[in-house]
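Subject: sequence -> structure tokens, single chain

Hey, anyone have a minute? Need the predicted structure for the following. Not urgent.
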Amino acid sequence: MTDSASYVFNIQEDMTIYTAANIREKLLLELEKEGDMEIDLSGVTEFDSTGYQLLLACKCESKTGDKVIKITNPSSVVSEVLHLYRDTETVSQD
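Reply:
Had a minute. Here:
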């Protein structure tokens, strides 16, 4: 990801089944923007399987287009779910 053509999208809310439609809508709007995107998860307060699915969908989107999507700074609740899924690749490790 190049600094000049990238931006950060901060998620500062729950990523659960109850908020999935709203967050999905926001993510789709962000994906339409030019440049690479970093999704910062440091402000996520609740996270469940639906939130995890949203992250996986974003990663899949980055593989089909020219956009690089980097998922960073998982909060402790995000890290906990990723650990349960034994997922060491969704979140970018710098």
